[in-house]
Write a structure and sequence with these properties.
Blueprint (H helix, E strand, L loop, with lengths): L5 H10 L30 E7 L13 H7 L2 H6 L6 E7 L18 H20 L3 E6 L5 H12 L2 E6 L20 H5 L25 E6 L4 H10 L2 E4 H7 L1 H12 L6 E7 L21 H13 L3 E7 L8 H18 L18
Parallel strand pairs: 1-2, 1-3, 3-8, 4-5, 4-7, 5-6, 7-8
Helix pairs in contact: 4-5, 8-9, 10-11
Organism: Anopheles culicifacies
Family: Belongs to the arginase family.
EC number: 3.5.3.1
Length: 362
């Protein structure tokens, strides 16, 4: 089988640490090439928002309306309420043209010509936002957009840890996916340990799978395909499903997740958040809902703790689909998304810090 790209194969052979334990939790190893890198302090007073109205990673129409629905619900105003000092810039929506593969195809990867093009444009945009010294908020769109957002983060920060909050592992390859929908493949496309599981993919030469799977932690899993479970166990991926959330509580799960993917507290943090990680009662307007998920309180706590590290640099919020459900379902789902994003930008449920205490002076 041909490699995805020659460099990816080289990275796999020289940089990957292959785990064999089937245990659910695995402490991620620190790459020595990054041993002297000090964590960069994130400027939380500057925030950039990128919309990706993309729906080609799956088959249900409407998820491309997610960014507009979230913006229309007053996202920017709600973030601004945290502090008037916040500088918020909306970079608009990603625009792209589908690639022309001239007859070249990869089996079981639907709409690849769209995914490859949109992801590349998004990667450049995320890098630009981060280079502009802003916390990057990416609004999806389906979860295929994480290919571009995380790639863009890697181009900026090099050493990145990812918290993947999702009911699903999104770890299939084109050989294992039961549907061929690419929104179920982004983790497998990003991980350097899995690059040899892929054929050459036209249109994706720009994307190097350089993040270690050991620098990623799942939270909220409850619908995992058999192949995905095998890969999780083979590589010792940090996987905290709903069973672990029930057993340990969300506070301990977040502590363990951060400890395992960033034991030295030096990596730039990326949270890729699928709204279907929440229980369907909390977020019914999404395409692949699964009962028994996170409460909104637990979901907000994940964002609060990520922000509290001081290293949260990028957040994806994906799979809000305003075309699914009743108007009340849509309102509830979009409202949940706004609550999550505001928490990621620093809102505290204890109350935001006042900019002046003049009113309290006698």
């Amino acid at each position: 089988m041909l490699p995805r790209i020659a460099l990816a194969r080289l990275v796999c052979r020289t940089g990957a640490t292959f785990g064999t334990s089937a245990h659910s939790y695995c402490t991620s190893s620190t790459d020595p090439s990054f041993a002297t890198i000090k964590p960069k302090k994130i400027n939380y007073e500057r925030i950039g928002i990128v919309g990706v109205p993309f729906d080609k990673g799956q088959r249900k129409k409407g998820v491309g309306l997610g960014p507009k629905a979230i913006r229309d619900a007053g996202l920017i105003d709600h973030i601004q309420e945290i502090s008037p000092k916040l500088n918020i810039k909306d970079y608009g929506d990603i625009q792209y043209e589908a690639l022309n593969f001239n007859g070249r195809k990869v089996g079981n990867m639907k709409k690849l010509e769209h995914v490859a093009s949109c992801s590349r444009h998004l990667s450049h945009q995320v890098t630009e936002v981060l280079d502009d010294d802003r916390l990057c908020i990416t609004l999806g769109g389906d979860h295929a957009i994480a290919i571009g957002s995380i790639d863009g983060h890697l181009h900026h920060s090099k050493d990145v840890a990812v918290i993947w909050v999702d009911a699903h592992a999104d770890l299939n390859t084109n050989s294992t996916s039961p549907s061929g929908n690419i929104h179920g493949m982004p983790v497998a496309l990003l991980a350097r340990e899995l690059c040899d599981y892929w054929p050459y993919i036209p249109g994706m030469d720009w994307q190097e799978p350089i993040i270690s799977i050991k620098n990623l932690a799942y939270i909220g899993l409850r619908s995992v395909d058999p192949y995905e479970r095998a890969i999780i166990e083979k590589f010792g991926i940090n996987a905290f499903g709903m069973r672990e959330v029930e057993k340990y509580g969300i506070r301990e799960v977040m502590r363990m997740a951060l400890e395992r993917i960033d034991p030295e507290g030096q990596r730039s943090l990326h949270v890729s958040y699928d709204i279907d990680s929440l229980d369907v009662l909390e977020a019914p307007s999404t395409g692949t809902s699964v009962r028994g998920g996170l409460t909104l309180r637990e979901g907000i706590y994940i964002m609060e703790e990520a922000y509290g590290t001081g290293r949260l640099a990028a957040v994806d919020l994906v799979e809000v689909n305003p075309a699914i459900g009743t108007p009340e379902d849509v309102r509830r789902t979009v409202e949940a998304a706004v609550h999550l994003l505001v928490a990621a930008c620093g809102h505290s449920r204890k109350g935001d810090i006042a900019d002046t205490l003049d009113l309290l002076q006698k």
